[in-house]
Amino acid sequence: EGIDCLRTLSMFWVILGHTAMMSGGPGLAKSEYAELTDNFWNQFILYGDKSVDTFFLLGGILVGYTVISVLRKGKQGVFARLMQCTQLVLLRYLRLTPLYAFVLFVYAYLIPYAGDGPIWKSAIDTTGQCRNGQWWSNMVYVNNFFPDQFFPTCMPWAWYLACDMQFFVVGLVVLIVYLHSKQAGFGLIFTLVVASTIGGYFFVIKHRELTQDWWYDKPYFRVSPMVIGIGIGLILKDTKIASKFRISRIASFGIQFVAISVVIFLIYIQYTLFHPSDHSTLVPQNNWSGEQFSAYYTFGRLMFVFCVSIVLFLAITKNGGVIQRIMAAQYWEPLGKLTYGAYLVHPIFLLIYYSHLWNIFQYDTISISMVFCSTLLLSYAAAFILFVCIEKPFENLMRMGLVSKRK
Question: Phi-psi category of 329—alpha, beta or left, where left has phi over 0 and alpha has psi -120 to 50?
């Protein structure tokens, strides 16, 4: 309970953030650029990148809770484990890649003919990266390493899928260690979290200007939410905490209030990073020291994940009160199933809209809200069609093949 809700709301946040970020494609008025970051309420829109950590957390919980059962049913021995893990990775590849490949094809070969305008050709140059031979790194989920820069990649937003696949492999290693020794398994989780966070902290201090290319999409710096989720999934699977853990309503309310308050604080503290801004330049003023920026970028994200984990844990164990009832509502489930498709297609709709504009985009709340709502509806409508026509049929074929193999 709560996973589909959190997945859906996080997807909404991702789309909202990309709506604001990609609005700069046709250019923003000079006076608006600094104001964009200098507005206190815009922080929630501008820094939706934390929603990605929520996705990693949810993925880890599902891996820890479900895959451990599959591994326990397998044969013992190094070779048997290796074959079992290979099969699990292959199944995940076959489940994710057909829809991914289809969207990549549309993005690379059809989108260039979907519009026009004074900046259309230059704006869609990114599609050429897919046609010029970079598509292979997407199809083997290493596009967060090849090429070594973030934006000259084929479907730049697909870095998340590469990390997610790589984290799945890391998760299998954690689970195998856990099967041999629970203490060693949780020790490995703790080690990965500490190494990833501290390593990222010192890297960002030294290479702040390279954060986007060398930190943001690299698995060894982003693995913490995933392995924390694996730990939560294992606790829920191997203990009776989900059915026996009970706290009072007052305690639950207090814990959730503190957790949500910390999340809000972590989002809006970024206001001090660019405030006050120099409105005479295109570059917002940066007010944090290297240590402050690095601590927020690493330890701040870790705190965000912990707080989200607390809220989700209370919902799963039925201690969440009103929030739990909202998160457990049935209408989140179909939306949760469309998240993958919506993630893949929403930047394409935004690219088409912003790139065909004949005037500079005037950034204001109403304009962004209209673009966001339109993109949200179009993305989920397209995701539904893709789910019915591609994602679900391939999933059914996989199940048929597994059933036939068992028989």
Answer: beta
Query: In the chain, how many H helices and how many E strands?
Result: 24, 0
Measured in whole angstroms, the distance separating CA 319 from the mean position of its chain's CA atoms is 26
- What is the phi/psi pair of residue 361, to 5°? -70, 125
Classify 361 as helix, strand or coil: strand
Backbone dihedral region of 27: left (phi > 0), alpha (psi from -120 to 50 degrees) or beta?
left
What does the DSSP assignment read for 142-195? Answer: -TTTSSSSSTTSSSGGGHHHHHHHHHHHHHHHHHHHHHH-HHHHHHHHHHHHHH
- pLDDT on residue 152: 75
Select from 57, 12, 8 the least CA-distant residue to 307. 57
- Residue 247's closest CA among 162, 318, 198? 318
CA-to-CA dists, residue 49 to 301, 310, 327, 361, angstroms: 10, 20, 22, 22
Tell me the residue length of the chain.
407
Say which residues have a Cβ less than 8 Å from residue 290's Cβ, sequence separation at least 6: 204, 205, 208
Side chain identity at 92, as an amino acid letter? R
Q: Whole-angstrom Cα distance, residue 273 to residue 287? A: 5
pLDDT at residue number 210: 66
Distance of CA 169 to the CA centre of its chain: 17
Residues 404, 398: Cα–Cα separation, whole Å: 10
Exposed (0-12), middle (13-18) or buried (19+): which is 330, by Cβ within 10 Å?
exposed
CA distance 162 to 148: 13
pLDDT, tens digit (0-9, with 9 covering 90-100), for 274-288: 665 554 444 445 678
- pLDDT tens-digit profile of 321-370? 899 899 999 999 999 999 999 999 999 999 999 888 877 777 777 888 89
H/E element, 297: none
| Chain centre distance of CA 386 | 20
Non-local CB neighbours of 40 within 8 Å, separated by 6+ positions = 268, 271, 275
Q: Which residues of the chain have pLDDT under 50?
A: 30, 279-284
